[in-house]
TrEMBL record:
Species annotation: Alkalimonas delamerensis
Coiled coil stretches, renumbered: none
Main localization, broad class: membrane
Upper lineage: Bacteria, Pseudomonadati, Pseudomonadota, Gammaproteobacteria, Alkalimonas
Listed Pfam families: STAS (PF01740), Sulfate_transp (PF00916)
Keywords (A to Z) from UniProt: Membrane, Transmembrane, Transmembrane helix
InterPro entries in UniProt: SLC26A/SulP_dom (IPR011547), SLC26A/SulP_fam (IPR001902), STAS_dom (IPR002645), STAS_dom_sf (IPR036513)
Protein name: SulP family inorganic anion transporter
Source domain of life: Bacteria
Database matches in CDD domains: STAS_SulP_like_sulfate_transporter
C-alpha cells in the first residue's frame, strides 16, 4: 500500500490510468442503472460522481471504485414504486440508508466482514468473474445486453442470430491487446486504456456500424430535498435499512476482493462511513444510491490504480463528461468495453483455490461451489449469506466432535463400591459444551436412568473448556430430571467464575451443595474415598 512518503511518479501514473479506465467502464453502467431505476440516466451519473468521489476521499479501501450497483438500483426502483412514484420520498429512503451506514461504521459493525471464511470469498469472487463474462457475451457480439447472467444464457441463440461481425472483431481485438500487451508497455500505458483508444479509433476511421455508448447527459444536478411523510415513515425506514444493509455487504465484499488482489487490508468501519456519507450526498442531488462496485474496482486495479486518488480520478472524469466532454466518450463501442471486461472476468476467477481444489477438504469445496452457484444463478448477497451459514454449520459440527463423554464400555463408572455408599457413578465431560454438542450428551446420560443401583451422579466438568447458555440450561434440566428420580447429582468444577455464574442463575439445582470445587466436597456427600475420581 502506497504511503505519502513512497508515492512516486509510477504510482501517480497508475492512479490516473486506473481511474480513467474505471470511469470509462463505469459510464455506460451508471447510465443504464439510471434508466433501469426509473429516475433517468442523469440520476445514475450523478450517483456515480457523488458516491465515487466521497467514498474515495473518506472510505477505508484505497482502490475501491464506488457507484450505482445492480442490487442497490433494484431497491431504489422498488422504493419509487412503493412510494407512489414520488422521487423526493425515494430520496428520503437513500438519506435514511446513508445515515444508517454511517451509524453501522461508528458502531464498528464493519469488522464482522473479516470473519467471512475463505471458501465463501473464493466462491463469491469466481462467481463475480463468471457473471462479468456472461453479461458481456451479448455486447461482445453487437447485441443488446441482458440484465442477468441467466437471461444472457437464455438469449444466447438470439444473440448469435444477431451477430455483428464488426463488433465481434472489435471485441476480440480489444481482448487480444489487453492479453498480449507486454508488461514493459503496460507499466507506462495500461493495456485496457491502450486497447480502448486504438479500437475506438479503428471503429471511427473504418466507419463500422456498431453499438456505442451514445448520448451522455450534461449539466450540474439540482438540489433536491428528501421528503418525509409520517404516514409512510415505516416503509421509508424499512427500505432505507434494506439499502444500508445491502450497501454494507456489497461494499465490504468488494473490499475483500480488493484486499485479495492487492494483498492489502482495508478499514471496514471507515469504509462504511465513507459509503454512508456518499449516499447522503446522493440523496440531496437526486443521484442513485450505490456501493463499492466489484467489477469497476478490479478494472481500476488491473489498469494500475493503487491509492484513493484513482477513485477520485474516476469520479472527476465522469464530472468532466457531465460538464461538456460527453461527445468524446459517446463514440466508444460497447464491444470494446466488453473485450476489456471479459479479460477482467477471467482475472477475477480465484485460481489460487481452483488449482488446488482436488486437495482441498470436501466440505470447504462444497461451500465454495454453493456460493459460486448462488452468486451466478441467484443473488450475490444471498450467496454470501448461505455460504456463511454453511461455514458456521461446518464449524459447529467440528466443534461438537471435540466434546467427549468418557464412559467405559458405554457404562457409567463406579467410584468406590462401598456397601454404605452404593451406586456412586462418575461421568467425565471434556471439550466445549454448547448447543452443537449437547444432544449427544443428553442421549448418553439417559442411560443413567436404566441403572437401578445408582444413587449419586458426579459430572466431572474439569475438562470442559467452554459452556454456553444452551449447555447450562440443558444441564439444569438434566439435574432436575435426576433429582426427580430420587438421584443425587453433583457437578465437579475447577473454574470458580463458572461456578459463580451458575449460582447467579438462582436455580434450585445449582446450589452450594451441588456445585463442588474439589474432590473432597464431592466425596463428603457420597463416599469416603477419592481414588477413582481424582484422576482427571
Amino acid at each position: 500500500m502506497a504511503t505519502h512518503s513512497s508515492y512516486s511518479a509510477a504510482t501517480l501514473r497508475g492512479d490516473l490510468f486506473g481511474g480513467l479506465t474505471a470511469g470509462i467502464v463505469a459510464l455506460p453502467l451508471a447510465l443504464a442503472f439510471g434508466v433501469a431505476s426509473g429516475a433517468g440516466a442523469a440520476a445514475g451519473l450523478y450517483g456515480a460522481i457523488a458516491l465515487g468521489l466521497v467514498a474515495a476521499l473518506f472510505g477505508g479501501t484505497r482502490v475501491q471504485i464506488s457507484g450505482p450497483t445492480g442490487p442497490m438500483t433494484v431497491v431504489f426502483a422498488s422504493a419509487i414504486a412503493a412510494l407512489g412514484g414520488s422521487f423526493e420520498m425515494a430520496l428520503a429512503v437513500v438519506l435514511v440508508g446513508g445515515v444508517l451506514q454511517i451509524a453501522l461504521g461508528l458502531l464498528k459493525v464493519g469488522g464482522l466482514v473479516r470473519y467471512i471464511p475463505y471458501p465463501v470469498i473464493s466462491g463469491f469472487m469466481s462467481g463475480i468473474g463468471v457473471i462479468i463474462i456472461l453479461l458481456q457475451l451479448a455486447p461482445l457480439m453487437g447485441a443488446a445486453p441482458s440484465p442477468s447472467p441467466l437471461q444472457a444464457l437464455a438469449k444466447l441463440p438470439d444473440t448469435l442470430a444477431e451477430l455483428n461481425l464488426h463488433a465481434l472483431a472489435l471485441g476480440l481485438m480489444t481482448f487480444a491487446i489487453v492479453w498480449f500487451t507486454p508488461m514493459r508497455i503496460s507499466r507506462y500505458l495500461p493495456s485496457p486504456l491502450l486497447a480502448l483508444c486504438l479500437c475506438t479509433l479503428a471503429a471511427v476511421l473504418l466507419e463500422w456500424q456498431v453499438p456505442v455508448i451514445g448520448d451522455i447527459p450534461t449539466g450540474l444536478p439540482e438540489l433536491h430535498l428528501p421528503h418525509f411523510s409520517l404516514v409512510q415513515w415505516s416503509l421509508i425506514f424499512t427500505l432505507g435499512l434494506t439499502l444500508a444493509l445491502l450497501g454494507t455487504i456489497d461494499s465490504l465484499l468488494t473490499s475483500l476482493v480488493a484486499d485479495s488482489i492487492t494483498r492489502t487490508r482495508h478499514k471496514p468501519n471507515k469504509e462504511l462511513i465513507g459509503q454512508g456519507l456518499g449516499n447522503v450526498l446522493c440523496s440531496f442531488i437526486g443521484g442513485l444510491p450505490g456501493a463499492g462496485a466489484t467489477m469497476r474496482t478490479v478494472v481500476n486495479v488491473n489498469a494500475g490504480g493503487r491509492t484513493r486518488l484513482s477513485g477520485m480520478v474516476h469520479a472527476l472524469f465522469l464530472l468532466a463528461l457531465l460538464l461538456g466532454l460527453g461527445p468524446l466518450a459517446a463514440q466508444i463501442p460497447l464491444a470494446v468495453l466488453a473485450g476489456i471486461l471479459v479479460k477482467v472476468g477471467l482475472d477475477i476467477l480465484d485460481y489460487r483455490l481452483l488449482k488446488r481444489i482436488s486437495g482441498t477438504p470436501k466440505p470447504e469445496v462444497i461451500i465454495m461451489l454453493s456460493v459460486f452457484a448462488l452468486t451466478v444463478l441467484v443473488d450475490l448477497v444471498i450467496a454470501v449469506g448461505v455460504g456463511v451459514v454453511l461455514a458456521m454449520g461446518l464449524v459447529t459440527w467440528r466443534m461438537a466432535k471435540t466434546a467427549h463423554i468418557h464412559l467405559e464400555d458405554d457404562e457409567l463408572l463406579d467410584v468406590p463400591n462401598d456397601p454404605e455408599h452404593p451406586g456412586v457413578r462418575l461421568v467425565r465431560l471434556s471439550g466445549p459444551l454448547f448447543f452443537g454438542s449437547m444432544a449427544e450428551m443428553l442421549d448418553r446420560m439417559d442411560k443413567v436412568d436404566q441403572v437401578l443401583d445408582t444413587h449419586d451422579i458426579v459430572l466431572d466438568c474439569r475438562g470442559v473448556d467452554y459452556m454456553d447458555l444452551t449447555a447450562v440450561f440443558a444441564i439444569e434440566d438434566m439435574l432436575q430430571k435426576l433429582q426427580h428420580k430420587k438421584l443425587r447429582p453433583r457437578l465437579l468444577l475447577d473454574d470458580d467464575a463458572l461456578r459463580q455464574r451458575l449460582l447467579a442463575l438462582q436455580s434450585a439445582v445449582f446450589t452450594e451443595q451441588t456445585l463442588c470445587m474439589s474432590v473432597e466436597q464431592v466425596l463428603d456427600g457420597c463416599c469416603t474415598s477419592d481414588e477413582r475420581i481424582s484422576k482427571p
